[in-house]
Specification:
The chain contains 10 helices and 13 strands. With 333 residues, it is of the alpha+beta class. A hairpin with a 2-residue loop joins strand 11 and strand 12. The protein is globular, with a radius of gyration of 19 Å.
């Protein structure tokens, strides 16, 4: 584990970053152009990050440098002042949700000590299971879904039929969905929004969603792990390569062969006890309201957390254009 401790609470500075990205993205809500929405969010997030006092490196970002001109993996962000940090960003978790005007799109950032975040090169997906605080410590990703649901129900002092399971609506989950239904548990199928899906389970007392299961993005697993460490939830993951070629590419890029069979916990994905997490709603959802525009400004809803102190802040903010830098208003789309 890195020795340095982040002395300054970065969380309240980071929420300005997700607010900027969410406002820019929300301008494209329902307009059917997910690339334009994502591009606007990336530009706004990068501009806001440039003023943050930190010497950050993007570990989880928009992709390789050649594929993503901004917020690419390995990019240096912040104004180069201490502390040194690892940074995970998703300017829009749910670009398609935004483009179609669907619920639960959010803008997300997580920051931890330098050298603490895990990134699996060339592996796009992970198999995951995530639960809230009451069931933390009882799940096992290598156990069948029915066994995990029995354990969660026991931990939460309820029946399996009382549980709600979040699953990405994908053909690859046909068998998983069948097994969950056989237990009697309820299912909430989500079209996208892997990070938000996990967080709603970490906050199950508020959302009524108890477990997330299934295969989703590997980068999103790291962001979800950051939220888990702040909300006392649990996530377990295993790499889910799609082909032998993907395995070969990952090994050539430096992935240890043992990682292909390894079970990753939150502490494996982020090897730090000092993690900052901020998320702002783009569209309305169970966890956060989205951006609402009015005559001369907009309102945003965010959650801001720090694992070291256990602090969780929920923020509703009004932004007035005449007092907001033009680059952060989301205009110009």
């Amino acid at each position: 584990m890195p020795e340095a401790i982040l002395q300054r609470n970065l969380a309240l500075e980071l929420v300005r970053v997700t607010e900027a990205a969410a406002i820019a993205a929300a301008r494209w809500m329902g307009r059917g152009d997910k690339d334009a929405a994502d591009g606007a969010a990336v530009d706004a997030m990068r501009f806001a990050l440039s003023s943050i006092d930190m010497d950050g490196t993007v570990i989880i970002g928009e992709g390789e440098k050649d594929e993503a001109p901004m917020l690419y993996i390995g990019e240096k962000i912040g104004n180069s002042l201490p502390p040194q940090t690892d940074v995970a960003v998703d300017p829009i978790d749910g670009t398609r949700l935004t483009a179609l005007g669907l619920p639960n799109a959010i803008s997300v950032i997580a920051v931890s000590e330098a050298g603490s975040m895990y990134f699996p090169p060339k592996i796009v997906y992970m198999d995951k299971i995530a639960v809230g605080p009451e069931a933390a410590g009882v799940i096992d990703i290598e156990a069948p879904p029915a066994e995990n649901l029995r354990r969660v129900a026991r931990a939460q002092n309820c029946e399996i039929e009382d549980l709600s399971v979040v699953v990405l609506d994908r053909p690859r989950h046909e068998e998983l969905i069948k097994q969950i239904r056989q237990t009697g548990a309820r299912i909430k199928l989500i079209p996208d929004g892997d990070v938000a899906g996990a967080i709603t389970c970490f906050m199950n007392e508020r959302t009524g969603l108890d477990v997330m299961m299934g295969v989703g993005g590997a980068p999103e697993a790291v962001l979800a792990a950051a939220a888990a460490k702040c909300l006392r939830g649990q996530i377990e993951c295993k790499l889910w390569p799609r082909s032998e070629q993907e395995i070969r590419d990952a090994l050539e890029a430096g992935l240890p062969e043992a990682d292909l069979k390894r079970v990753f916990t939150s502490d494996d994905l982020i090897r730090s006890n000092d993690v900052y997490f901020a998320a702002t709603g783009v569209t309305d959802g169970e966890m956060l309201k989205g951006v609402h525009f009015y005559g001369h400004g907009a309102s945003t809803n965010s959650i801001v957390m720090r694992s070291r102190t256990g602090t969780i802040r929920r923020m509703e903010v009004e932004h007035h254009w005449q007092k907001t830098p033009y680059e952060l208003t989301g205009k110009g789309g």
